[in-house]
Automatic annotation (TrEMBL):
This is Fimbrial assembly protein. Keywords: Coiled coil, Membrane, Transmembrane, Transmembrane helix. The gene is pilN. It comes from uncultured Desulfobacterium sp. InterPro entries: Extracell_DNA_Util/SecSys_Comp, PilN. Residues 40-94 form a coiled coil. The chain crosses the membrane at residues 20-43. GO terms for biological process: type IV pilus assembly; type IV pilus-dependent motility. It comes from the Bacteria.
């Protein structure tokens, strides 16, 4: 019988299997490193894109915040101008208020039947005293006053009849409350 030593062949085969396994392992590790590197590069590029986009959005947000500041400043200016216009309109109404009041009182006086002796204005009250031919003339004067734009309510204080030069005349005292004059009414009065 012939003896064949198969051990070195088995050992060589074993070494070859180990070398193949090590090669496969090294190739697997290299492949894994390549995959991880590729994913790292991909994620890094995506991250840089996101950072760039974020920077652009931050710039856009900054420009919008500048616009918002400008809008707020414009709103403040608009509100200031509006308040100034309101003050001007109020001053115009107050300026023409007394003129309009005295004009309407003069128009309310029945001609030739009534004359005013005194006229005073304190705050929103107007007091007047005068003489009239009779009570009906005083009532007509009160009605005319209530129909004006500037006087709201008219209250008769006192009346008495006196005789002057063989004629009976009625002395009267009136208290009137003024109505607030708005700018539109004042402008209409100025136009007339």
């Amino acid at each position: 019988m012939i003896r064949i030593n198969l051990l070195p062949f088995r050992a060589a085969r074993k070494r070859e299997n180990v070398r193949i396994q090590i090669s496969v392992y090294v190739l697997s590790v290299v492949l894994l490193i390549l995959c991880l590197g590729a994913s790292f590069i991909s994620l890094n590029s995506k991250l840089s894109e996101v950072k760039n986009k974020n920077a652009e959005l931050q710039k856009e947000l900054a420009s919008y915040s500048d616009m918002l500041k400008q809008m707020d400043e414009l709103k403040k200016k608009r509100d200031d101008l509006k308040s100034k216009l309101d003050v001007i309109q109020g001053l115009e109404a107050k300026r023409s208020g007394p003129v309009q009041l005295f004009d309407e009182i003069a128009m309310a006086v029945p001609k030739g039947k009534l004359s005013l002796k005194s006229l005073g204005e304190t705050g929103d009250k107007v007091t007047m005293a005068g003489i009239a031919k009779d009570y009906d003339t005083v009532a007509l004067f009160m009605t005319n006053l209530e129909n004006t734009n500037t006087i709201g309510t008219v209250t008769l204080g006192a009346t008495n009849i006196t005789e002057v030069e063989a004629q009976k005349i009625s002395n009267f005292n009136l208290t009137c409350l003024k109505q607030p004059v708005d700018a539109a009414t004042a402008q209409k009065a100025n136009v007339k």
